[in-house]
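Standup notes
- DV: blocked on the single-chain target, sequence here:
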Amino acid sequence: MPLSDHEQRMLDQIEQALYAEDPKFAHAVRSTNPQVHYKRRIVKAALGFVVGVCALMAGLVINQGTVTIAVSVTGFLLMVVCCVWALTSWKRMTGIGTEAAASGGRPRRRRRQRGGAPKAGFMERMEERWRRRTEGDGGI
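- DV (later): unblocked, structure below
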């Protein structure tokens, strides 16, 4: 939701006062962008992924029995961890998935009866019963 003109003017006045009071702190706060942090994490994860691929290939080339398996498994695990790290950083950087978190968790699904019609929730059934009582239909 955008700020109103009055709110924008107040924010500008607060920023100017902050710059006048402590310009060094104001510059540090203004230049910090969380997306830069997440981009750095994605680059580090990509480099880690490449190192994991190299370790996996090195494990395949080495002919030393258990050392081969250990190096290959370590490379593969490093690749998986770096992929997860990069994906979580990407989601935070782009804001994907924050809608469900803001609404209190994952979206709720409605259960369906065998006939395919959605099953009425508890509150809906209670409201329907109340409506019928007040209209004089009776029935429970």
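- Follow-up: The two ends are 45 Å apart (CA to CA).
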